[in-house]
């Protein structure tokens, strides 16, 4: 059974490009994004890791640690990081600083249900399944708050991942949810658990569109 929203992110010990880590210890009290890659020296992943390096300040501003995982060893990872910086640096300075887990024996990929035997488009040279392109957002209590699985053919959209982090962090602080295509600064939805009486004090500027759909600006 795969990981579900609300599960505790499983703990593990691993070799990474930043040294050996115990995952829960490494997480500390931070938010985190764990994202997996089919394999080192693959084209789509090379562009993705460069983008994550470029967006490091955006993750840091939100108190989010990032960590990648790929089913290769540390030697490959270190060589690949040079390629990523070299290629990514053609577009903007790229310096991969976040750790990448070396999951050569795929133990962590199995623990996080990152292998999909049904996906024929995601196989290595021997026909074995690569790690699929997954993302986990983990909160400071180590609870899984988002899971995403992308096909091998399609690079992820890190704007979307940051958008979800913004939504989750805001929803943890205020009794709100966020509507379709919401972006930081847009109006939000008053949580259904907030009574109309409470809404008058909590969100004085709110608008009632339907009895079950109330929106409000939110000063950040
Ligand atoms: C890629 O990251 O480019 C990739 C990886 C596995 C299969 C297809 C593409």
TrEMBL record:
Any one of the GO CC terms: cytosol
UniProt record, GO biological process: cell redox homeostasis
MF GO annotations: peroxiredoxin activity
Family matches, as Pfam families: 1-cysPrx_C, AhpC-TSA
InterPro entries per UniProt: AhpC/TSA, Peroxiredoxin_AhpC-typ, Peroxiredoxin_C, PRX_1cys, Thioredoxin-like_sf, Thioredoxin_domain
Active site: residue positions: 45 (cysteine sulfenic acid (-soh) intermediate)
Keywords, alphabetical: Antioxidant, Oxidoreductase, Peroxidase, Redox-active center
CDD domains linked: PRX_1cys
Occurrences of domain Thioredoxin (ranges): 3-170
Coiled-coil portions: none
Family the UniProt entry places it in: Belongs to the peroxiredoxin family. Prx6 subfamily.
Task performed by this protein: Thiol-specific peroxidase that catalyzes the reduction of hydrogen peroxide and organic hydroperoxides to water and alcohols, respectively.
Name of protein: Cysteine peroxiredoxin
Organism: Pterulicium gracile
Source organism phylogeny: Eukaryota, Fungi, Dikarya, Basidiomycota, Agaricomycotina
């Amino acid at each position: 059974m795969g990981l579900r929203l609300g599960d505790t992110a499983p703990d593990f010990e691993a070799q990474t490009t930043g040294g050996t880590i115990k995952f829960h210890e490494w997480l500390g009290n931070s938010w985190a994004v764990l994202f997996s890659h089919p394999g080192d020296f693959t084209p789509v992943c090379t562009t993705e890791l460069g983008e994550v390096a470029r967006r490091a300040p955006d993750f840091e501003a939100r108190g989010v640690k990032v960590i990648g995982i790929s089913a290769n060893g540390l030697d490959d990872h270190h060589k690949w990081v040079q390629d990523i910086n070299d290629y990514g640096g053609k577009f903007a300075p790229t310096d991969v600083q976040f750790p990448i887990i070396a999951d050569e024996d795929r133990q962590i990929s199995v623990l996080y249900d990152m292998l999909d035997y049904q996906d024929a488009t995601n196989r290595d040279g021997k026909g074995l399944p690569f790690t699929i392109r997954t993302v986990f957002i983990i909160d400071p209590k180590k609870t899984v708050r988002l899971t995403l699985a992308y096909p091998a053919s399609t690079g992820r959209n890190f704007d979307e991942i940051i958008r979800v982090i913004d939504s989750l962090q805001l929803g943890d602080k205020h009794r709100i949810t966020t509507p379709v295509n919401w972006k930081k600064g847009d109006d939000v939805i008053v949580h259904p658990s907030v009574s109309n009486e409470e809404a008058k004090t909590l969100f004085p500027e709110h608008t009632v569109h339907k009895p079950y759909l109330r929106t409000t600006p939110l000063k950040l």
